[in-house]
Every structure is written in C-alpha cells, then in structure tokens.
Amino acid sequence: MDGIIIINKPKGFTSQDVVSKTKKILNIKKAGHTGTLDPLATGVLPVLIGNYTKLSKYLIEHDKIYRAKVQFGEKRETGDLEGKIVETSEVKICDIAKIKDILKSMVGKCFQKPPMYSAIKVNGKKLYEYARNGESVEVPTREIEIYKLDFLNFLEKEQILEIEVSCSKGTYIRTLCEDIAKNLGTVGFMLDLQRIQVDKFKIEDSLSFEDLEKNKDNIEKKLIKMEEVFKEFPNINLPENKIDLFLNGVNIRGFNKYQDGIYNIYCEKYIGLGIVKDGCLKRDIVI
Description:
This protein is α+β, with helices and mostly antiparallel strands. The chain folds into 3 domains: 3-62 and 200-225, Pseudouridine synthase; 64-195, Pseudouridine synthase; 230-286, Archaeosine Trna-guanine Transglycosylase, Chain: A, domain 4 (Roll), CATH 2.30.130.10. Helix content is 22%, strand content 37%. The chain is built from 8 helices and 18 strands. It has helices at residues 15-26, 56-59, 96-105, 127-132, 173-183, 209-215, 226-229, 240-247, and strands spanning 3-9, 31-33, 42-49, 64-72, 74-76, 85-88, 108-112, 121-122, 125-126, 142-155, 160-167, 188-198, 201-202, 235-237, 252-253, 261-267, 269-277, 280-286. A hairpin with a 1-residue loop joins strand 16 and strand 17 (269-277). 30% of the residues are buried. The mean pLDDT is 92.
C-alpha cells in the first residue's frame, strides 16, 4: 500500500502517535508524517504510507494555514496552555480597530526566534532539553514569512483573540501569538491551535481515526497518489527505449530544450519524478 492520507490529528496526540495509530488501524508496517504538530494542536497531518515516505523531502517545505486563539493577560513558560504562568498583565484590550491594524502590520517577512520549548537543535541538543534543565543558550533567529494574518473574532470579556494565519515553513504560531500581545501592549499565549491546510492538503479532506476505521477495507480509494501531489511540475514523456536507463539511475543526455528542474516522468503511464540538469535527465523518485 502506497499513498498519502490526510489525518485530522486530535488533541493530545503527538505526530508520531498519529503515525503509530494509523499503522495499527491499517495493519501496515511503513509510514511517516510531514511537519510536526504539537500535542495540543489539532488538524491537518499528512501521513505518508509505504514507499511514499520517500516524498517527505518535498512535502516538508510546504506553506501552512492555521487558526489560533490568543489569550491575553498571561504569559506562559511554553508559550501555550501547558506551561506555567510566568507573567501577568492588567492591560485590557478593547479596540478591535487597533487589533486589526497590528495584525496587518505583521504581514510580510521577518526574523523570528523559536520558543525555548521546541525541538530545534542547538549544538546537537534540543531547545526544550536546555529549558527543562534550566540552562541558557543563544537561540538563533530565522527568517519566516506571514502571507496573511486575518482577524476572525475577539471575545472582549474573556480577552481571547481568534486569528487565521497563512505562513511559511518554520513559523512558530506560539511565538506569533506572544508577539501580537506584545505589540498590543500586553502579554499573551497561544490558547488553541488548529492547522487547516498544508499546501494543497485541506482539513475538509482529512479523516479522523473513526473515519479511518470505517474505511480501512477500502482505504486505497482515499489515498492521494504521487501524480496528483506533484501535478504543478511540468511533464516529460519518455520514449520506451529510455525507460530502463531512467529506472536504473543513468544520466540520460538530450534534454537541452528543458530548463533545469523537477519533472513528472511518463512512459504511457506515470513513472515518477526526474530531475533535469545541464541537459541531462536523471531519476529522482520512483514508487
């Protein structure tokens, strides 16, 4: 069994928990995920099944869309509901127009410092390991991009802001929530997070574990295939006398009219991905 299935990750599960449960339900041995989602978060988690685990290098770079809730008035150690309160503020937010202006001002490229409670490695050690041991370390910033940051709702009594974020890979929504609060003159943390899209994979196309159980005998119909995932790449129709060379990983000359890049390879049927470089075609991924 090979393909991609979109799981609607429930709260309380790690991304690896989702992979393990998917393998158990479908009685398969090989699976993996792209793009870790925190245990407190819910939503879209693409699970790669069988030989499709080879595709992770392409899928991990994708942009994402989230819906989040920011709780104003408290700052948490972890940036989310799990951490202990480390700071409070009596400042009450009440100006929706100001909130919208702040959100608008945060759209674009910026440098973001990942939270200490994250799995990013510094000097071979994960940041959360430093944090749990009470050790300090210099956390490098990295460039991210916020494509859209939309106001959804504001509960003034509860001081909870609901937003939708479209962003690049590597964006930490916990940090974004803290920055929104800071720009509004208060403190805050991420109260809730739902990932609603990873590239073309959308929440409305996802399956819960209950859906997976119900459909496990016909799951092939639910699997997303490689040809569909990479349909934005241009195509090369390979003649039959070249297919064995391609499959064996031989550099095939004669592709000077093609620009360097990634191509879908066909030979009567879909074969996989190939890379053209300097007029030569070579196999990349074949399932």
